[in-house]
């Protein structure tokens, strides 16, 4: 098929083309079309000034800063000094040794250690056996407690009884030492089981120091062989030892259990007293 050949159009397409041509011709014959006036431009809007800083600068003058006058600090009040205790100034401070800085005993001479222990024994002996204002409080009386003093008094009493015996001196010493050592431990456990507020070794120390009057009585009875003198001396020293042990044992337990704590102590001291009188 060549380009000169024509293809007949569909009747509907030919009618559409004729209609478009008619419209074009009609618009050309009618003249130029009227153009509507353009819409006048909108009036300009007021622009809002935008500042780069978040705050609007003020016209007020900046406030004048004045440095406050330096005030001298008030002097601190003087530390309050507690009133001195007359009883404490008249006697050596025993409690300070127990809570002060620990003494270095590894590098000091042996004689210094012996002197310190002897002075402690003498001080504790005064607090326990002789009248003083701290007898009613076992915690204040023997804060700096030790076991050297009780050990010395127990050994001295056993040696004195063995020297007084005419036969079986070693057996007398063994019985006396075992009786005193075991008795002090049992009495201390008795006080603790009764709810006593006292340290175990502190109670041992107190009971040992209370043997000092009986030591003095045993020494006198060894020098005087009279039975009447022995009985009188033992009764006096027994009452002295009981008087020395009473405030400590009674204040350590409940008042309703005071008799249960004091009776075993008195029984042990009475046994020692009979032992002093019986040995000849």
List keywords for this structure.
58% helix; rod-shaped
Output mean pLDDT: 74
Structure summary, number of beta strands: 0
Helix content: 55-70%
Work out the helix count: 11
> What order do the helices and strands follow?
HHHHHHHHHHH
Tell me, what's the shape? rod-shaped
What is the rounded Rg? 57 Å
Helix/strand/pairing category: mainly alpha
Q: What's a quick, concise take on this entry?
A:
58% of the residues lie in helices and 0% in strands. The chain is an all-alpha fold and 280 residues long.
Helix-strand blueprint:
Layout: H1 11-29, H2 86-89, H3 95-99, H4 110-129, H5 138-141, H6 148-164, H7 169-193, H8 200-209, H9 212-223, H10 227-252, H11 258-278
Kindly describe this structure:
The chain has 11 helices and no strands. It has helices at 11-29, 86-89, 95-99, 110-129, 138-141, 148-164, 169-193, 200-209, 212-223, 227-252, 258-278. The longest helix is centred in the C-terminal third of the chain and has 26 residues, at 227-252. The protein is rod-shaped and about 175 Å long. It starts with 10 loop residues before the first helix and ends with a helix.
